[in-house]
Amino acid sequence: MRRIAIIPGDGIGKEVVPEAVKVLEWANRRFGLQLRLDYFDWGADRYLRDQVSLPADALEMFRREYSAILAGAFGDPRITDNRHAGDILLGLRTGLDLYINLRPVKLLDERRSPLKGRSAREIDFVVFRENTEGPYARIGGQFKRGTGDEVAIQEDINTRRGVERIVVAAFEYARAHGRKCVTMADKSNVLTYGHELWQRAFREVATRYPDVEARHQYIDAMAMFFVTDPGRYDVIVTNNLFGDILTDLGAGLVGGLGLAASANIHPGSVSLFEPVHGSAPDIAGKGTANPMGAILSASMMLEFLDALTAAAEVEQAVAECLKADETTVELGGRLGTSGCGDAIVRRLAVR
Ligand code: ATP
Known about the structure:
Layout: E1 2-9, H1 13-31, E2 35-39, H2 44-50, H3 58-65, E3 68-73, H4 83-95, E4 100-106, E5 124-130, E6 140-143, E7 151-154, H5 160-176, E8 181-186, H6 194-206, E9 213-218, H7 219-228, E10 235-238, H8 240-254, E11 261-265, E12 271-275, H9 292-304, H10 308-323, H11 337-349
Parallel strand pairs: 1-2, 1-3, 3-12, 5-10, 8-9, 8-10
Antiparallel strand pairs: 4-5, 4-11, 6-7, 11-12
Helix pairs in contact: 1-9, 1-11, 5-6, 7-8, 9-10, 10-11
């Protein structure tokens, strides 16, 4: 038996996670995976009620007892600094040392790309975003705050260990998945200290993978080529901040935030899967949110749990629904959140 933690969170997280759960339950039945799903009510309501964001024993419990975590989204207009969201999401990412943020950019339905005339084969790459360092390490401070002389410093942390392990993860993935090329994106022409470290680590790691081509590209050029020539990418590795921005652009290339999935991984240890989108307060509670990003995140979880056939079938079912316009309104479909989840499960049920 493997225990899976389910944390729907806030806003549309509460609406899309039940749809991803339907898919996990299908996989459980169909493949006898023996996944046991346990629910946690962490999020804005709980935080406002009793000031608990991420309980003190949560990390230890997950490390000891759980194989994976499925999370929805965290964010609520009532909590202006979004303190609880940072505590929960960044707390889990750093506390469980989930140093790989893996985000696929794969065009499942050619009609969904805003780029003209792109075939699905052309837009199919994965981004390895470093997930624990950079400016997200929250090291810095403010001086003379609120005065005309104020200073704000936000340090960009790049450790040799942190950089090397994400680069290794990208090459290992490329080798295991028959991908031919890893491209590292940085801004080493300007950030001559931090990103020079990335350059050296990348070159050194690359020598251990002679079967995989190693390329380098400046992040600004990469942003342009995402739009003009996305077919040139296979596996991308980059730092936390650039990866954050780049993968939203990637989501845009394949049909928008509603479709984008992600995994936060520590190889061999409990890992977290979540849609890329946030809590989307503007559409929360209406039953219109697209659950496909959450469902594709569940598919990534199944792959992580070695249920490879189940994972592939879920992705295939999502692709079929997209092609048949069995989608939510923002993609031109007529289904609500649960109707869209049901349509995907219906296609899985007849396999
Ligand atoms: P947060 O503060 O939690 O990040 P946000 O609203 O600022 O929330 P997102 O939730 O990531 O940011 O999304 C931005 C917009 O994209 C939303 O306001 C919503 O209109 C749209 N959107 C995001 N996710 C979905 C989805 N699953 N289905 C449909 N529309 C979505």
